[in-house]
Amino acid sequence: TALKSGVRIKLHPGSTDVVFVGSSTATSTYFPLAPGDDVFVEIDSVNSISAICPSYNSSTSTNVEVFALGF
Fold first, then answer.
1. CB count, 10 Å around CB of 65?
2. In three state form, how does the secondary structure of the chain look?
3. Which of 7, 9, 5 is nearest to 21 (CA)?
4. Measured between alpha carbons, how far is 71 from 28 in angstroms, rounded to an integer?
5. Do 63 and 12 contact (CB within 8 A), yes or no?
6. How far from each other are the two terminal CA atoms of the chain, in whole angstroms?
7. Of the candidates 47, 58, 54, the residue with the CA atom closest to the CA atom of residue 23
8. 38-69 pLDDT, tens per residue?
9. 41, 48 Cβ separation under 8 angstroms
10. Which pTM was predicted?
């Protein structure tokens, strides 16, 4: 989806895990989001954003939800 200025990414405040957000395949450049944190990424397409949760465990992780609002 085309964007005019970028996208705000927010991690659910009740998340039990940290999520990393980035716009490349190099995960070393990803930005960490703790529960309740948000970041604005200047980018022209929401399809270019990735979110990963390396510590995710389906048995113990809860509220690992990432919200995106494009501008």
1. 12
2. CECCCCEEEEECCCCCCCEEEECCCCHHHCEEECCCCEEEECCCEHHHCEEECCCCCCCCCCCCCEEEEEC
3. 9
4. 26
5. yes
6. 11
7. 47
8. 999 888 888 888 888 888 888 889 989 998 88
9. no
10. 0.81
